Queue: 3 jobs
Job 1
Amino acid sequence: MPHVVSAPADPFTLAGSRVVVHQIPDAHDNLIWVLEDPHTGTAAAVDGPSASGVQAFAEDRGLSLTTILNTHTHADHIGINRDYERRGQLHSMTVIGAASRAHDIPGLTRAVSEGDNVQFGDATLEVLETPGHLDGHICFTGHGALFCGDTMFAGGCGYLFDGPPSAMRHSLSKLAALPGSTRVCCAHEYTQDNLRFAWLVEPDSGPLAARIRDVWEIRAR
C-alpha cells in the first residue's frame, strides 16, 4: 500500500541553529522526522515504525544516525529501535525517551522528564510531558519547532488509548501555549479524517470550511 504522502514536506532549518529537519514518510501514514547536523554529518530520528526509510536516507546523504528520540512506546514509534537492535546497531546510538516508560524503550540510554533539555548539534530541545494518547508520551520543542508524536495532528488530537480526556486537554493546553509560529511536526498524516470529524463538530466554522477546501484541493493533486 503506498504512503498517503506522495510529496514530502520541504526540509527546514531549526531557527537559530544549523540543524536541518527532513520529513521521511514510512509505512502507510507514519511521518519520521530526521534532524541533520551538516557540521558533523550526524543525524537524529524522531520515532519510526522501522529503520529502512531512515537508513536509506542517511546512506544517500552520507550521514551517520547517532540518536533516536522516542515520543512514546507504540510499536510504530519504537519499531525503529527494534529494527536497529536486530541489525546490531542500536547499542552504538543515543536513545532518548520518557523516564516513566524507561523499561519499555529498547536501547534507552537517557531517560527524560518534563523540563529536561536534549542537545543535538547546536540545537536544544525541551521535553514536555503530554499524556492522553498514551501514558508516558512526551514531546520535544525548541527553535521554533515541535515534535509532538501522536499528541496532536492537523485538525485533531491523538486517539485516547490511556486518557483520560482531562489529561489530553491539559497536554494540548501546553502545546497551545507555544508561539503561534511554531512549526508542528506530527507523526502521522491524518488530516482528511480529522477534518471530517471536525466538520461534524463545527459545521458553521468559516475557517474550518476554508481549510477543508484547501486540503481537498491539495490531495486531489
Job 2
Amino acid sequence: MSERIRLAVVEDQLFTREVTIKLLHVHYGDSSKVIGFATVEELLDWEDSEFDVVVLDLQLRGGSLEGSDAIHAAVRRGRVLVFSSLESGEALERAHAAGALGYVSKDTGGEQALIDGVDAVLAGDSFVDPELLTRIGASARKQLTTRQQEVLRLEALGCNVSQIAPKLGLSEAGVRRHIERIVEIHPNCAKAERVRLAIELGLVTPWETSQRYPAPR
C-alpha cells in the first residue's frame, strides 16, 4: 500500500462519524486520507469521487438513500464495508445482494473488527464481523446439535451428501438422517431454504455461499 489510501465514512451521527474517522487516521497514519459524509448524496457529490473503501452506515437520516439503496449508490464510489447496528442474517443477505464486500456490527465487533474489515476490503476480500456471526441466530442454533450445524454449514457451502460424509466421519445414511432432523425442526426447508437458514443461523455468510448459489434478492 505505497499509494495513499482513500477512505470514506458515511455516517449521519456526528460523534460516531468523527470517532470512526479518527480511528482510521490513527491506524493508517499519514498514508491515508479519510473523508466523512453525513449522507450518500454528499458522497456522490464529492469532487474526489473515487475511494478505496466506503465505510457505510445503513440507517442514514437527512438523505433519501438508506439500506440497500445506499449500498447500490455507494459502490459507484468504491468498495463498500457496511458498519451498522442492524444484526440479522437478512441484513447480511441484503448487503451482499446490493454489492457490499463486508459487514461489521457497531455494537459487537469493536475497533479491531472495523480495522480488520477495512483491511480485508482494501485487499478485495469479503469480511463479516466474527462476533456478529456468533450473535446471529444464537438461540435458534441451540435447537440443532453441533453435528447438525456442521452438516447444514457444509451443505450451504455446496457439498453434497457424499462429500459431507467423509468430512465429518459419517456414513451417507447418517448425513441424510441429520438433514431429515434439520427439516423436522425447520419444516418446509428444501435445499435452497437450508442455505438461507444457515445464513440466518450465522453458520455461513452470503459471501461464502455466493460462488455456489445466486445472491438472494
Job 3
Amino acid sequence: MTTGLVFNERQHSYHLNGVRLPGVTTIIGASDDKSGLLKWYGDNGWAKANKMRDAAAVLGTRIHAAIERFNIAIGAEEPYDLYTLEPDLLPYVEGYAQWFNANVREVVAVEQMVWSEHGYAGTLDAALVLMDDPAPVLVDLKSSKFNPQYPNPRPIWRLQSSAYQVALLERTGIACTRRAVVQVPSNDPGTVKFHEFERSSNRPDWEGFLAALKLYQWNASLARSTPGQGGTP
C-alpha cells in the first residue's frame, strides 16, 4: 500500500521512507506548454493576472475540498448535508451530486496517496464504479474554467490520469481500465462535464507520462550537477 509515503503540504512534496519523490503534477508541469499562459499574462498584465490566478486557485481548492468531502461521506455511507456548505459552493456540489447520483454505483477510493516503482508519487482524486461497468474508473476532478476554444479534455490531463492509474494498480491492485475527468467548471456553477479517454489510449498516454518523467529526471540531474542553476530535484 502507501506505507512510508508522507506528503508535506507546506512544501507540496512527497517523501517515501525519507526519500523525496516528485509529484505527478510537478512532473507534468515541467514539460507542459506554457505559451497560452504567457499570452494570458501578456493580455492582462502581471499584477492583474496574478490576482486573477490566485483568486481562481482559492476557489478551485475550495470546490475540490467540498466535493472530496462529498465523495468520502458517500463512500463511508454517511449522511451528507449539502446545505451546510458556504452559499457560493452550493451550486457546484449540487451539480456534482446530481451527476454522481445518476452515474455512480460505488466509491472505491478517494484522495488516495500512491507511489510508483518508476519513482514518482501523487494523490488521486477518486476511483469510482459507474452504473454502466463493474470495473472502476480512475477519475480526476477539475474545476478549471470551461473554454470551448481549448481542447476538452485537455491533452495534459491524459498524462496525469495515466500516472495515477498505474500507481494505483501497483500499490493496491485496483485495476482502473477506464480513465476520465469530471470537470466542475468554476465559471459555470452547477454544470458537470464528463470527459472519458479512449481505452486504446491507456498505453500511449502512459508512455507519454514516462517521457515527461524522464525529462523531469534529466533536468533535475542537470540542476544538481551544475552549480547555480537552481531546480528542484
